Amino acid sequence: MNAAMPMRRPATEEISGLIERVTFHNEDSGFSVLRVKTPGHREETTVVGSLPSVTAGEWLVAEGWWIRDKEHGLQFKASTMKTVPPTTVAGIERYLSSGLVKGIGPVLAKKLVGRFGAEVLTVIETRTAELQTVDGIGPKRRERIARAWQEARQVREIMLFLHSHGVSTSRAVRIFKTYGEQAIEKVRENPYTLAKDIYGIGFATADQIAQKVGIPKDSLNRARAGIDHVLLEATSDGHCVLPLGKLKLAAVKLLAVPEAIVEQALSQMLTSGSLRLEEIDGEPLISCLTSGRPRRASRHGSNVWRECQPSIRQSTSTRRSRGASGGRARRSPLPSARR
Q: What is the pLDDT, as a whole number, of residue 101?
């Protein structure tokens, strides 16, 4: 019997064009369906992908591939998308009329474009005092317009930063929704927190991002994240504890670093209380649970919450009982001599 051939993803390409209409946009996930006027195409192109915010009149640059949906026909499925403000007078007026900038509606947008022409966006960003020369704009409205524009600009900068470090648009949206204006700072400081905080991002993805932002491979942040990953994988298989030696070997193999780095990271995690070490029947074991609460397990890219299997709990309890007759189970410092 011939093995089934794996489906190949079509070759990626880049398209760009003016967003004529936002057919659908989910503010939580960022999933969007856009109608885009692209050069060389008579009809508008349907583009599907993720963006934290999107407005008709913006210029879209998208990378992805063409698909044919059974219900909706030919579409461009974007893996990454970015938007930039329009440059033409007509595009700018439509852009400002969309409601993106709080305090500006269709009537005021027309006045602004009539007063400043194609320079209106520059005026909003760098010369906000001039806005008050337009009828209908006072100090309070001017401040609202300037604040809304800066917020939109910040979103674009965050997305550009994440894209430049290999983060797909859908993941970038989740990162932005979780961290907000602190997204760049969080990713630069310790990208391994993404594996704990962001659904759909595991150690492997966080590690790739970390390498691109310049985190060294022997970083203790990386070592702690690797140890956590090994324990989470064990938890997903139903284990509440893992032998210390087995944990070290798995972490060293995953991280490709000297064992001393793993031991130093382990020591920090034990001292902080994020892990627990017990010695039962002379064997040092690392607990996958802290204070009796289930840890988040990651398997095959999805995060789930899972209690330990009853049989494992009973087995551990029985071993502790046996240990009580010949030597109580106790916490112990990290035994550096054991391997």
A: 75
The 10 Å Cβ neighbour count of residue 68 is: 8
- Taking each helix axis from N to C end, the angle separating 139-164 and 169-179, rounded to the nearest 10 degrees, works out to 130
The pLDDT assigned to 338 comes to 39
- Phi, psi for residue 285 in degrees, rounded to 5: -125, 140
Domains and CATH numbers, the chain: 13-84 (2.40.50.140), 99-159 (1.10.150), 168-212 (no CATH), 220-331 (1.10.10)
pLDDT at 3: 52
Pairing of β 73-84 and β 45-50: parallel
**Distant-in-sequence, close-in-space partners of 317: CB < 8 Å, separation ≥ 6:** none
> CA 69 from chain center: how many Å?
27
Please tell me the distance from the alpha carbon of residue 55 to that of residue 307, in angstroms, as a whole number. Answer: 44
* CB contact at 8 A, 12 and 65: yes
Which of the four pLDDT bands, split at 50, 70 and 90, describes residue 4?
Answer: low
Residue linked to tokens 């401040």: 143
What is the greatest pairwise CA distance in the chain?
89
Angstrom distances, CA of residue 58 to CA of 94, 170, 196, 277, 321 = 9, 19, 34, 55, 68
Q: Cite the beta strand spans of the chain per DSSP E.
A: 13-25, 31-37, 45-50, 59-69, 73-84, 241-243, 276-280, 283-287, 296-299, 302-305, 330-331
Overall average pLDDT of the 208-233 stretch: 92
Q: Cβ distance 65 to 13 under 8 Å?
A: yes
pLDDT of residue 330: 41
Q: pLDDT of 61-118, one tens digit each?
A: 999 999 998 888 899 999 988 888 888 888 888 888 877 677 788 899 999 999 999 9
Main-chain phi, psi angles of 290, to 5 degrees: -120, 125
